[in-house]
Design brief:
The chain is mainly alpha-helical and about 450 residues long. The protein is about 45% helix and about 10% strand. The chain contains 21 helices and 13 strands. It has a 3-stranded mixed β-sheet with strand order 1-6-10. Strand 12 and strand 13 form a beta hairpin. The longest helix has 26 residues.
Amino acid sequence: MKPQLRILFILYFMFSLSSCEDFLDEKPDIKLKDASTLADLHALLNNTAVMNYYTMGIGEASADNYYLETAAWQSLPQHERDMYIWEGEIFHQFYLNAWLDYYQTVYYSNYILKKLEEFSSGGTDLNLSSEIKGKAVFFRGFAFFKLLTLFSKAYDKQTASTDLGIPLRLDDDFNTKSERASVESCYRQIIIDLELAAQLLPNSSANKHSPSKNAAFILLSWVHLAMQEFEGASGYAEKSLQISDRLLNYKNYNAAENYPFVTGNDENVFTVASGSLGLLGYWNAKIDTTLFKSYADGDFRKSLFFGKNSDGSAFFKGSYTGSNGLFMGLTTADAYLNIAESLIRMNRVFEGLAYLEKLLKMRYQANAIPNLPYNSTQSALELVLEERRKEFVMRDSRWIDIKRLNKHADNSISIKRILRELKVELKPNDNRYALPLPQEIIELTGMQQNPH
């Protein structure tokens, strides 16, 4: 986000009508101010810098797929050092700010939805209008889901109605007061947005930056999985696979390439990406040693996802962006792993493992595919969770998985940061799994900060 737009989006969270009335007449982008046709609104949705590309995958930065050496950590700016060790302030008014990035997407979506209502009285193209509405509610639902999984506690049926969620801004009015809704209310709004998107959007999109029905189904499977609603998660994943079940066969890719994968590949359903900055840059972030060792020699991901540093440690190179930027979008593999886990948790082990096997055949040499434990629900679950960890490395989804898995009695995941004179541990269900909101937003709005 450009520094000059920062104040505008901070003001999106303020309620100060008397002092801001004139200022709020200005839109954050001249294109917003001038949008007067459906074509203009469609062009706004195609602004990938706002709708698809974000500052940093701060979920990935907070998770356990990597570690930093002390010297690398010390070389980082303060906000990145604090992010790594889960401090109480992780932004320090730095203008590259994931909270404001995602709410910029929300603002654009709300502006477009309001304009659509204004246009509806005229003789508009109903098909194009419906598609624009579908895209806008998808982008809003996506942004809300990312914000909720970063800045709120994991969904817990017993406490979701009182746990602090995020501000559910459903209009583009800067004068609407920002208040945190409950986690329950936030998830229900996300589902409403995504179900509407699924009704309005085409099955697929040649432009992978553009939402589709398939993308909505995959994201809905993630949402229901986060809520431990496994029937819904499996159902939406199945609907996605009915549209497209294509997977990349990793044996056809060249591990000698600096970046083996290209953006917009056949497995990619919806593209979202972020910069890596210093914290997650391959020159600093070293892959967790236990994670790296979990990849068998016959697993193509071991050489396609990782390169070797001079000290023997591993760095990540397997982004679906085809660069050092991190891919945070949606793929067919998401649907396979979401349905496999959900079915196994519902004791439909044979069905779940059948989906998992299809994925594994595209990831392993034929003689190295793990044995499938059809006779043990627990072993089947352990296998699918291990494969999730290996498949989704550096995808900004591990943070979501850690939080939701720690709500299961049979899981206990702690994260440790070990620096020269500093050791920090994040135990299961620690308050710090709800990352701190930007302090300037708290001061401007009076919203409650997450406990630390």
